[in-house]
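Write out structure tokens for Centromere protein S.
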Amino acid sequence: MAESSEQQLPNTKRLQAAVHYTVGSLCQEIANDKQVSFSKQAVAAISEITFRQCETFTKDLEMFARHAKRSTITMDDVKLLARRSRSLHAHISEQSNEIAANDREEKEKRKRSNSAGKRRSDGDSAVADSEDHIIE
């Protein structure tokens, strides 16, 4: 369900403020580390560029998924988005591989615990059956 433009405006403003705050924090961290300073105008410009680039990324990701006749944006879409920056693409691919490995581990753990749970419940029912025979 799409939000009306009236509802989106406060969300957009909150996101812009969050980006501005984050950029300001990063600039302050860099300023302290490198012993330089950033003007308020520079921080505002970096924030605006960052926010606009994120909007562009969002639209591109949506188009990639739509082109693939999907309604869900996948990691492959993100990799495609980052294809022009080798270092970013390598970083995203590395993170993707880590996430996939963690997901596989979690599935294996769930599978093992479900198997163990089934064996225990089968054993419990066997014990219950044997107890029924004793009582009778």
